[in-house]
């Protein structure tokens, strides 16, 4: 049986979902010791450069490629905005 081909948008949504779930699990499983951040916080710090690089790859493919990556760029923006809103809500 042949596996169905996943779209680039589904792969992107799966990446963000799995990454944030792993960061949440690491936050719960590995507690902080004093002033050092735990695994979940470290993964969120790494989330910024990883997602920016992923965004830049899609932006270059949108500008110079044959396929449209506009939906992927929109998904990046929605995820970043959602995380910013969630973090600012819980920071209060």
Can you tag this structure with a few keywords?
92 residues; mainly alpha; 3 helices; 0% strand; globular
> For the residues shown, what is the average pLDDT?
89
Largest sheet: none
Question: Helix- and strand-based class?
Answer: mainly alpha
Uncertain ranges = none
Protein model, in words:
Helices cover 75% and strands 0% of the residues. The protein is mainly alpha-helical and 92 residues long. The longest helix has 26 residues, at 39-64.
Blueprint (SSEs and pairs):
Blueprint (H helix, E strand, L loop, with lengths): L7 H22 L9 H26 L5 H21 L2
Briefly summarize what is shown:
With 92 residues, the protein is mainly α. It has helices at 8-29, 39-64, 70-90.
